[in-house]
Specification:
It contains four helices and 19 strands. With 434 residues, it is mainly β. Helix 1 runs antiparallel to helix 2 and helix 2 packs across helix 4. Keywords: Signal.
Length: 434
Amino acid sequence: MKRLPTWRAAPGLLSLGLLTPHSPLVLADADDAADAITHNWTLAGEHQYRRQDACSSDCADQSTQLRLSDRLQWQSLTAQIYLDQQINQQDDDQTRLRLAELSAHWQPEDGWQLRAGRFSQDFERATVMQPMAFFQTAAAPFDQLADPDGLWMVSATHWLDDWTLTAVLAEANRANSDQPGTSEWQPAAGEVTPRQWGLAAERDFDALSVTLLAQQYQGRRPGLGVGYSRVIGSSWQLVGSSFIRQGSHYLSGYQQSRAHLLASLPTASADAVAAQLPDLQRSDSGWYPRLSQGIQWSGLTQMLQLELHYDRRKLSADKQQALYQLSDSTSASSTSPSAESTAFSNAAASLGNDRHQQRYLYQSWQYENTDYRLSQALLLGADHSHWWQLKAEWLPDWSLSFWLAYNGWQGNNQSEFGRAPWHSQISTGGQWVF
């Protein structure tokens, strides 16, 4: 079935920008091709300058990231290794050697394949917001050097005449597919990483590809998902996916935090706080879907994409802004913290980095020829805040590329991206595939 080009690449390649051919280095004689070890080396680097435009003092920051990666393949074994060097202006330099993939696969008999190790299992049909990406690396369209780590898992795949069936047992995915997003669970320090299982069925028709998925986290209710891609003519493609589960772990955590705060206050203060803090009922018994629907147009040199995402597990824009307003007004009107003002602050902090909206619109455009690539992307929230990127890349040959990118986060004090820690960012970098 024909698949139109998207921003999706093989696991570990999208985040490195490896959208060009590879040149493997074979360390063996031709007679020993079956036992050859192939290497795909990549050296990439990026320097970032960030500034918080709304800050009254000097709030600029700079950092440099260097990455050397190698993808090794030998018979049925695959490994992806990254050596990262992070240099920050605050002198908290960091060097990390990471194993993004280490997997083995074998076929015990015709029609069967077993795979084990650390890798990504791609069932997702949507491209940016990914409701079904429980077993793969989350998409990162704004980050050229995002972490591409896979999950530790085992999978068994069986090919039938019309369907492909895959069963998976894996550790839980912290990224959990949303960009921006939140994990389905937040394990406490020292807790063992929970497991998840999944069963997927895939089928290709003439111009339609369908995926059905059942997934469950350890100790949680199971959920069901469906994804599809439909090619229309020679230039258009519809891509979508959805997932639904009973109960919202995210909203349950907020309700528990809210109840704990109210129980710790005197009755009079608790009643005043309870009247102003959003009360999210039925977070354990309701059904909470996530939906992504996109449309893509591809020409000879250009690609345009629109994708709409809805996640009922998250806060509506009105509830989100109400929490911002409460925490801001309380902090501004109180010179010394009181029990009530502390409750407001704690209630807002209870959502932490997970305070995200229900609805997003993603849009991207790309133009490419043999010498350069121009791209633009926009992520627009329901509260009218937006995160956008302009990027230019120079492609002197297939193994070299250099880029210059500008990221901006904009919105008011009661919007998600308006509160991003850095409001603007300029980055320049390059990579060499050898």
